[in-house]
């Protein structure tokens, strides 16, 4: 029997490195769940991509972040031994992280004014899965009935 | 109707970059909630700051971390295009992360001996909000009644 | 009265810096709990180590990550003031993070094909504790009874 609290988003990335704004897709899962107050947990079953929150207004913010990651934080390095050649993507996955939680308040993701949810592709293009689990508050759920 | 499980802390930062120890403020929210066993989720609705755990004993630990972030991990870079000029703050926000969870055990935040909870200001001074959501364990809550 | 939802793993690390694969140990805690569907929260009460997800197939992935962290992201720096000399370990702990959540689906940790759970030792060898908290889904728990 499938676990009804888990849903999976499929995201096709278009470039080697890319921030993909998934805010609306995640909000759609929350809306379909009918949950008013609770938590939304995002889990990425991949090791060369990441999930993060950041500004989704100016596209130069994601591009500046990718520039810094690629030149300063985790650049390509001839000393890397992993044969697939994507060790910087693995570094970024661990630094940014492959999991994220969000609060759900009155049926909406609670986010700052400029804040969006991003899949950070570091070794694309590929099809990535994002596992979404929504938990409804027990107390508020009961009091609402 | 406001969601009773969500509270917001308001934190005034004093410098461009600064670790602000918010451990006591978060513990106060936990204490006021009356929750004995559960989880405490912290969410930062900002994209140029972060939340982290680290040593809150020697103040040279936070200052060394800020030094490394500013000189090695995410330094200023003339190639950045974002006009506000705060791209390094956005990088650090994604690397450290804008969300954090803590365990609540017998009414106290479960933390290591040297561990504190910090708001990491990267583009201050500003007033920042930290959203705190506390969830009580269902089983332990029931057994305690 | 001890909190029955919290267990602590004790992990002995063998090197100054090391990725220790703790996937099987965490799965054992999940299995013993009897929880079928839920969440598994991992919390590290230490400030010079971290918890992360990454590839646990090719051992050159962790070694490449440690190489990049030590040479680019957070190298030793004579400007560091913290007397213990382990400031890079504190930087890495905040960047990678000392907490992690996993989804539990049908009694198993939900992980990608190549994905494992690692304790990242940055200032060993030491004995580290990993606190594990498992929460069962309320709805699925009820419907299963």
Give a quick set of tags describing it.
Jelly Rolls; disordered C terminus; alpha+beta; 145 residues; 4 helices; 3-stranded antiparallel β-sheet; homotrimer; 5-stranded antiparallel β-sheet
Explain what this protein looks like in three dimensions.
Chain A is an alpha+beta fold and 145 residues long. Chain A has a single domain, classed as Jelly Rolls, CATH 2.60.120. Helices cover 28% and strands 34% of the residues of chain A. In chain A, strands 1-8-3-5-6 form a five-stranded antiparallel sheet. A three-stranded antiparallel sheet of chain A has the order 2-7-4, sandwiched between helices. The longest helix of chain A is centred in the middle third of the chain and has 14 residues, at 60-73. The radius of gyration of chain A is 17 Å and the shape is globular. The model of chain A is unreliable at 140-145 (pLDDT under 50). Chains in contact: A-B, A-C, B-C. The B-C interface holds B 37, 39, 52-55, 58, 60-61, 63-65, 67-69, 71-73, 95-97, 100-103, 105-106, 110-115, 120, 137-140 and C 3-6, 41, 43-47, 72-75, 77, 79-84, 87-88, 90-91, 93-95, 97-99, 101, 131, 133, 135-136, 138.
